[in-house]
């Protein structure tokens, strides 16, 4: 019995040690700091002690509003296809204009609902998408007690997509993902936001085209000789840096970010869709250095 209790104590201590590095910190009475670059899911926040943090929402992805480079343009095209509006108006110009206008509405809605002091829950996890802009992931609770990601998805101004984490109320990342997916389904059924303009007959083909393009890009970048530079740090790399690794797409990159930290290669097997054989293929491209 003593041996059993000792083993249980060891497991409990280990579990606590694993969870301890990544707690959520509650930042109350935050305010929105006006900027030209903010959008619906990423914005500058001012805390009560005067600090400024760029917060990227967990679980919600608004349509690109500020398109400044090829990466942004590719993402905008993928989002247009996701919502089934890539053929809107019969021309790319009209479809792009519609998509950007929806992105603008999402930014305006975030400004509106964050007009009163709000709460940010964050573990200060690095949320750089492209590695250029310093951001942290966070949950935002409005003055009315609503979860901002859920609000944007319900309004059809964001899709349920991105990085998920256990919520301030204790829902697991998978439960939170399912909740937002259900809200997205309802928004689509009601024709809210972007879903108002969805061509439902065309949507399956648009999404299929995107999958085919993604597969083609994987093939083009999958050759060993295409990978250049130093190995990617699995614990600190931005989403786009992880996607440099042959075989890692955006969904897998987001899931890897969700599962941090990783102490050894075998830890990657806890990520959905990654097997032991997959880890073997990644090894020469990855560095398992400690998270900051």
Describe the structure.
The longest helix is centred in the middle third of the chain and has 22 residues, at 92-113. By secondary structure, the protein is an alpha+beta fold. The protein is built from nine helices and nine strands. Residues 1-21 have low confidence and may be disordered. It folds into two domains: 22-197, OB fold (Dihydrolipoamide Acetyltransferase, E2P) (Beta Barrel), CATH 2.40.50; 223-287, Orthogonal Bundle (DNA polymerase, domain 1), CATH 1.10.150. The protein has helices at 2-19, 70-82, 92-113, 148-154, 173-190, 203-222, 239-242, 250-258, 276-282, and strands at 25-32, 42-46, 52-57, 60-61, 118-122, 136-141, 159-160, 232-233, 286-287. The strands form three sheets. A five-stranded mixed beta barrel has the order 1-2-3-6-5. A two-stranded antiparallel ribbon has the order 4-7. It has a two-stranded parallel sheet with strand order 8-9. 33% of the residues are buried.
Q: Notable features of this structure?
A:
292 residues, alpha+beta, OB fold (Dihydrolipoamide Acetyltransferase, E2P), 2 domains, 5-stranded mixed barrel, two-stranded antiparallel sheet, globular, disordered N terminus
Task: Report the uncertain regions.
Answer: 1-21
Characterize the main sheet: 5 strands, mixed, barrel
Average pLDDT for all residues: 86
CATH topology of the largest domain: OB fold (Dihydrolipoamide Acetyltransferase, E2P)
N to C succession of SSEs: HEEEEHHEEHEHHEHHHE
Query: What order do the strands of the largest sheet run in, or round the barrel if closed?
Result: 1-2-3-6-5
- Give the helix tally: 9
Inertia-based shape: globular
Alpha-carbon distance between the two ends: 40 Å
Please state the structural category: alpha+beta
Rounded to the nearest angstrom, the radius of gyration is 20 Å
Helix content: 40-55%
Number of domains: 2
Number of strands: 9
Second rung of CATH, namely the architecture of the largest domain: Beta Barrel
Highest CATH level, the class of the largest domain: Mainly Beta
Which range does the strand content fall in?
5-15%
